[in-house]
């Protein structure tokens, strides 16, 4: 029976600490193909490279012949000027290392040169180089190169030249040989050099590319070099052909990487015959990384313990000195007091007293103690000195960095002159300073709200026959609804179970009873069952039933409103309580399954989704609210989105937490749904769908003037963008400038009840995560995984914990405190 190995976990394709470990364990200790010597025909020719953020260059320093010797070529580190290891093969290929940690060339590639002897690379003149960046991890690209299953589905032109029937991969130490056609041993030489270089000889030419990771694990730079015997039109034809293949791979990687980052797909299955190249290189990466981590673990722990001890004790005093305006005499006493280890047991009392009433800028702020559910009990302080300092620093920094008090504070006592005292008592805002702009807050919203709440998606009238489907993306989760042959509407994550490519990838709406993945040809029916898996079906032990699409809980109300819940856990509450209110609203306003979709549109903008949520929800105990107040479309939309004038409405609307509202017009059977769809922390769009009756649509296709609503939405989005831009400026995010959203600001510009409901759900989920000691991802499907997968996933978690609760700005590599330490 064939043994099916699993891929590396999705966390390995998006972790910054893991890439930093890969850089030390893999990239600094490897050799890299730099190209044929035909690129260095002239003395002083200098070619620059950047591999794993190490800059180097190759320079020909001497010689009189056309082709340089190994002594005439030098590989130099750009910043240090040091000469790096290099090796020139007898057939004219130059290899180099990026550090002195690289082993001997023949130790790294013991059986490579005899294979390279089959091609004379000195005959291929250099023609062109290109480079560009893609939104994918470096391993995502190598995954695709190291297997041959996808060629006939992704590269139809290449498959004509090299039929996939014969394509296979042979693995050697630190390189893999791809055999495209045994009848063309020289013209079809395809080599992968671990960890990130390739060599492709076919069609009379040669191309090589380097898969270069950047500081961001989700961005990779691709560097291509092209060599060919021909020039002019013949080379351009070859170049067009190979570029088409490269761009097809590029699109595959970006689409697959998107799903690897969504928090749904965990791992995939690997074909033990056709994906041996993937198995080999993933095992190689895993072994080197885990060994490096094992060797470095004692040193890293000791270093972190020392640094944390110094930082915590120093920061406790420093923060108190700089953040709170106290009399110098008292601060001097407090600093002295903190420096005495015998008094550590009294620190919590002092800190709590300071935090309870803080004096700053002429105001006294009364701060609630241990307000957040994540606070650590006082008895935790008795464990050891280090934990005391860490807890005190964390608690104190939370209070110092927390939102400033609102301006709606109570006036201070009046002096004898009749003037108010400069001392005011103000209530601290519950909302964190990065409520609108924080990436960490947005990621928490994905986990705490959009992964666990029943979300309105569409009306059943959008589906008229089996196979009708509509694809959506909600807060970064790709999904689609499809009508089955049994008439039932089902929802699925838009993720192929094999290698994470989207199943619906071309048209967002259409009709098909079979959905085929364009990566490897896996196909599914309308129930999500796997019905076709090329090259897997013939393997003993492969079970199609274990590889169905991930289905999403779906509820359709009596009159056709479709709700989904992305939570994959077993204890998901049903929509029953809210359905009663929804049914009542539908009955009262003639919304029915016979409604027909008239028109719809999406308007995208650069703003945070919470800025558009107003009065969607008044009752915190339920997810829907029916409003009964006489209003026109202008005032109703204003109550929800701040919209301007438009057509008149019935005195009814339905708010479905967190982002949807439904409005009924005065015209019989005509209604709208408007949803705010978050995509990123600072990018959202509004989706509007208008429904009516069959008779009304036939009599008047427009029935109303949706352009009025669309233009109002666009206008309002511009206002949101302006407001968000001002919130995102550096001066507004500086804590010293008091940029935090106060309760008064929330109440005045947005619906306080809705914002507080969002906040309460974030707090509740964050409390569960603190107890669990890790992020809780409700959408992730748990499965029986391999021991290697579990070890790999645990390594990622451990590395994240070693780095600590931080947020990294990848461009500037700046590190800030965790904004979720509320």
TrEMBL record:
Catalytic activity annotation: choline + 2 reduced [2Fe-2S]-[ferredoxin] + O2 + 2 H(+) = betaine aldehyde hydrate + 2 oxidized [2Fe-2S]-[ferredoxin] + H2O
GO molecular function: 2 iron, 2 sulfur cluster binding; choline monooxygenase activity; iron ion binding
CDD domains xref list: RHO_alpha_C, Rieske_RO_Alpha_N
EC numbers for this chain: 1.14.15.7
GO BP: any one term: glycine betaine biosynthetic process from choline
All copies of domain Rieske, residue ranges: 455-542
Pathway per the UniProt entry: Amine and polyamine biosynthesis; betaine biosynthesis via choline pathway; betaine aldehyde from choline (monooxygenase route): step 1/1
PROSITE patterns listed in its UniProt record: RIESKE
Keyword terms of this UniProt record: 2Fe-2S, Iron, Iron-sulfur, Metal-binding, Oxidoreductase
Entry's family note: Belongs to the choline monooxygenase family.
PANTHER family in the record: CHOLINE MONOOXYGENASE, CHLOROPLASTIC, CLUSTER-BINDING PROTEIN, PUTATIVE (AFU_ORTHOLOGUE AFUA_6G03920)-RELATED
Main function: Catalyzes the first step of the osmoprotectant glycine betaine synthesis.
Protein's name according to its UniProt entry: Choline monooxygenase, chloroplastic
Organism: [Emmonsia] crescens
Lineage per the UniProt record: Eukaryota, Fungi, Dikarya, Ascomycota, Pezizomycotina
């Amino acid at each position: 029976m064939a043994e099916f190995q699993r891929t590396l976990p999705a966390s390995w394709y998006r972790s910054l600490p893991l890439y930093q470990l890969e850089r030390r364990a893999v990239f600094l200790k490897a050799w890299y193909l730099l190209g044929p010597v035909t690129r260095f025909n002239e003395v002083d020719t200098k070619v620059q490279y950047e591999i794993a953020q190490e800059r180097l260059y190759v320079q020909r320093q001497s010689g009189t012949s056309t082709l340089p010797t190994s002594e005439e070529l030098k590989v130099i580190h750009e910043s240090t000027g040091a000469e790096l290891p290099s090796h020139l093969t007898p057939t004219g290929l130059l290899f180099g290392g990026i550090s002195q940690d690289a082993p001997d060339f023949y130790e790294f590639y013991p059986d490579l040169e005899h294979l390279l002897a089959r091609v004379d690379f000195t005959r291929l003149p250099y023609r062109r180089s290109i480079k560009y960046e893609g939104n994918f991890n470096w391993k995502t690209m190598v995954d695709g190169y190291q297997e041959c299953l996808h060629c006939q589905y992704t590269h139809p032109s290449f498959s004509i030249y090299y039929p996939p029937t014969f394509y296979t991969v042979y693995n050697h130490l630190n390189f893999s040989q791809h055999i495209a056609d045994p009848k063309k041993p020289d013209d079809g030489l395809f080599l992968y050099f671990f960890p990130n270089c390739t060599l492709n000889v076919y069609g009379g030419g040669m191309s090589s590319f380097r898969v270069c990771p950047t500081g961001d694990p989700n961005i990779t730079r691709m560097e291509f070099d092209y060599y060919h015997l021909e020039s002019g039109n013949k080379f351009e034809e070859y170049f067009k052909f190979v570029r088409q293949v490269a761009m097809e791979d590029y699109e595959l990687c970006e689409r697959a990487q998107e799903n690897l980052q969504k928090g749904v797909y965990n791992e995939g299955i690997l074909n033990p015959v056709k994906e041996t190249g993937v198995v080999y290189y993933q095992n190689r990466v895993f072994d080197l990384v885990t060994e490096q981590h094992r060797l470095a673990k004692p040193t890293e722990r000791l270093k972190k313990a020392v640094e944390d001890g110094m930082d915590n004790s120093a920061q406790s005093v420093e923060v108190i000195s700089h953040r709170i305006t106290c009399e110098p005499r008292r601060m001097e006493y407090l600093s002295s007091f903190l420096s005495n280890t015998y008094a550590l047991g009294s620190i919590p009392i002092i800190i709590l007293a300071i935090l309870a009433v803080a004096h700053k800028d002429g105001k006294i702020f009364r701060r609630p103690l241990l307000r957040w559910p994540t606070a650590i009990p006082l008895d935790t302080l008795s464990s050891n000195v280090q934990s005391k300092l860490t807890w005190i620093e964390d608690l104190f920094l939370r209070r110092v960095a927390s939102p400033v008090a609102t301006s709606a504070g109570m006036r201070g006592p009046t002096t004898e002159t009749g003037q108010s005292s400069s001392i005011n008592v103000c209530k601290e805002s519950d909302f964190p300073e990065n409520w609108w702009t924080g990436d960490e807050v947005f990621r928490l919203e994905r986990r705490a709200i959009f992964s666990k709440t029943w979300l309105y998606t569409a009306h059943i009238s959008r589906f008229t026959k089996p196979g009708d489907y509509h694809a959506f993306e909600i807060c970064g989760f790709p999904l689609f609804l499809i009508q089955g042959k049994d008439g039932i509407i089902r929802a699925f994550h838009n993720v192929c179970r094999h290698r994470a490519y989207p199943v619906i990838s071309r048209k967002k709406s259409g009709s098909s009873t079979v959905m085929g993945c364009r990566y490897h040809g896996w196909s599914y029916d309308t129930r999500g069952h796997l019905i076709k898996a090329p090259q897997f079906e013939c393997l003993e032990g492969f079970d199609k039933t274990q590889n169905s699409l991930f289905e999403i809980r779906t509820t359709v109300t009596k009159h056709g409103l479709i709700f989904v819940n992305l939570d994959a856990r077993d204890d998901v509450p049903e929509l029953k309580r809210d359905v009663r209110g929804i049914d009542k609203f539908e009955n009262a306003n003639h919304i029915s399954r016979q409604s027909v979709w008239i028109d719809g549109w999406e308007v995208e903008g650069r703003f945070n989704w919470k800025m558009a949520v107003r009065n969607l929800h008044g009752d915190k105990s339920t997810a829907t609210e029916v409003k009964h107040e006489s209003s026109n479309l202008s005032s109703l939309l204003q109550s929800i989105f701040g919209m301007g004038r438009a057509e008149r409405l019935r005195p009814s609307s339905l708010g479905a937490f967190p982002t949807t509202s439904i409005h009924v017009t005065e015209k019989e059977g005509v209604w709208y749904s408007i949803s705010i769809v978050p995509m990123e922390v600072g990018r959202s769009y509004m989706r509007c769908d208008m429904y009516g009756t069959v008779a009304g649509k036939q009599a008047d296709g427009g029935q109303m003037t949706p352009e009025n609503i669309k233009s109002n939405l666009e206008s309002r989005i511009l206002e949101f963008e302006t407001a968000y831009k001002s919130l995102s400026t550096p001066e507004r995010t500086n804590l010293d400038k008091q940029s935090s959203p106060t309760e008064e600001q929330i109440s005045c510009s947005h619906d306080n009840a809705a914002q507080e409901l969002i906040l309460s759900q974030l707090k509740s989920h964050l409390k569960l995560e603190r107890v669990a000691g890790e992020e809780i991802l409700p959408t992730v499907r748990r499965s029986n995984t391999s021991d290697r997968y579990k070890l790999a996933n645990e390594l990622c978690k451990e590395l994240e914990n070693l780095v600590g609760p931080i947020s990294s700005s990848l461009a500037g590599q700046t590190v800030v405190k965790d904004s979720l330490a509320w």
